[in-house]
# Entry
Amino acid sequence: MDNATFQRIKDLVLKHQEIGVIVGPNPSLDEMAAGLGMFLSLKLMGKQVAIASPTQPTVSLSSLVGIDKVQSSLGGGIGGDLTVAFPYKEGEIEKVSYTLENGFLNIQVKAGEKGLSFSQQDVQFKRSGKMPTLLFFVGIAHLNDISSIYTQGTPADIVNIDNKADNEKFGNVVVVDTKWSSVSEQVADFVTLLEPQIELDADTAQNLLDGIDFATADFTSPKTSYLAFEVAGILMKKGATRQRAKQVSNASTSQGVNPATSGFFPPIPQQPVQQQQPVAQPQPMQPAWQPQPVSQPVQPAQQPVQQPQEVQQPVQQPQEVQQPVQETQQNSGKQTPPPDWLTPKVYKGSTIL
# Structure
């Protein structure tokens, strides 16, 4: 914010005592945080301030300090009449009365024969009072979006703070620029420049930092401006922390690191290949197939362990198996085999292979 714009806004704030802050319908966390940041800062200056939005704040904004102060119309925080409204159907209400008890005014609605069809959530509280003479429009691109709160032509000085490209740029002071990544950083830029006139507290600083955090996806968005980093450091010096509102997690996840490209997956297919090499190519099996000269004598040495010669003769064993045994006996010069020949143990014959 340039010095001329800041001075114009500062002069308006010093001039007016009754100030209103308006946030658009269904605001984002950034827009509501900016509005509450302005609301709390003006409170610190001793101003009579009210903040309003056409729609009720959602649960997703409950982490912001001062969210319970947001009303559906202006004037509630300044004064005026209070109207209690609830749905009415013929025959449901017999009479309405009131009582005074312990300093409270109790409005009693006595049900008729049909009974009351509405619930407590249907009861509305409306404050009617004079319109503030200075209005801050935060994150509002079109005046038609807040027609339920502000009527065009109402006498009031207007400060328009926004970063949308389609902003109508209405008001006495227009602070609209698309180069800023959030409206929270725009408001933070203004309120920090008010020092030493006001001392920014930790609650206000936390709201504004949460708004910047949300709008910039935890400072990972490529649209994050340098102003966001500058004011974030100042807000942290005032007591704000990097804790993010719950809505920030979704935006941060979309901007986070992709596990498929993080470098953890390439080593995984290499490890099974290294472990399977000893199994696929067992070294002890190779010598059994290499010695060709002893291939025929090896057969009788392996078969007697499982199928001895004399036991298998009645089964009519093939001649190819018996001949090597007879030739081995003749070469040894013995007519009969040794006594331990038939034992299924270690071969102890004297045949020279």
